[in-house]
Amino acid sequence: MQVTMENIGELAHRINIVVPVDEVAQEMNKRLQKISNTTEMAGFRKGKVPISLLEKRFGPSIKAEVTDEFANRGLDDAMKKNDLQLTVQPELKSVKTDKGAPIEISLEVEVFPDLKLKELKEIEINTIHIDVTDKDTDDVLNNMAKLNPEFKKVDRVVKQDDQLDLKISSHIVSESTTTDQQKDLEENTQPYTYSHRFGQEHNIKEFDAALKDVKTGEIREFDMQYAKDHPNKKFAGQTIHHRIEVVEVKEPIYAKLDDEFAKKMGIQDGIAALKESVKKQLDDQSNDLQLQENNKRVFAKLLEINELTLPPKLLQHEIDIFKRMNYPDKSVEAIEKLPVTTEVEEKAKQNVQRALVSRALMKQLNIVLDQQRFQAKLMKIVQQYENPTEVLQQLVKDKHQLAQIQALIAEEQLVEELLKIVKTNLETVNYSDYINHEKQSMKANETISN
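The chain above was modelled as a monomer; its predicted structure follows.
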């Protein structure tokens, strides 16, 4: 077999494979001999069917198998000889399998670039340590106590976190509303009772504002414009008139943080043991968050200072993955026709850039997957489920998901090694401050995307 490779672009190559007639015949005969031992045909006993008859019946399919094998073998030879690695599956450009002639195969491939990264010792990165304080633990316990409060009727104006028992009737007042829409809403929004926690973070702010300082027995009427993406489709994008009668105002009565509360939470050894358990969970969570944040900062710096050539086919492959995630019910053909949004393209670029840098540094620093760490990660994942053994059995069969977890662990190992080499400036932040900052960042990003 003769294998030649020619450059057709910065990261693109054409691989030509020519298999002489005698090699083709030898491989064909080997396979025909193998199936002759198990094949039966009319008039012949098992193992006694003439090769000529087997070739007539199975020749085309065996020729296709042989061609695939030579293509894979030639591709592997070319990659190993030139120390290259494919970014995506090769593209078959042409194949000739004429009888009595050499097999000729032409493939086009895209390979990873040979990156020349900046000297690691010259890089300076701001890293983070997330500290869990006693106040953080107490805040979590207090929030746990507030999850299922009892309520007591009060004779005063509503306050933050009170429960309002309401009787509500509504109708559309939007000028653009059709008669059918109005009828549909009225049929499905007959006066109904509703318990509303006043002042909660997820509430519609305009709704709470309209109920400010209400008391038992009071009636409020107001118009509200609902967003187009409101979960209630009958309200979405409409101006709705609400008539609300306050049946009762109730204040929450929260559980006391004592040994009895600890037992309700499944901890039999008292409130001190519950607090210790919560502290451990927060420490574990802060370690995970710290690892994620430092990973993000390390790669952000590496991508900032290194110029990268993005393999176009790999980038398109990543874009297609995002499209399939966004439109899981569409066919491959339909997804290919969809336009690429700026957001999807930017995310795909970031993923490819990160993959290129990660791959180059793992090779440079000789990072080998820590199997014990990988197994520990698997156990940590499955312990979150009611049937961890069953989930583990399913997980080990999912090669794609296993590969993702292995890649995550290898990247964590890489970052740990990098932080031993680069210059670091350590910043210590409080756990609750970090969480609040992340929430604000998410809200800001949602506002920008909307």
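The chain has a mean pLDDT of 88.
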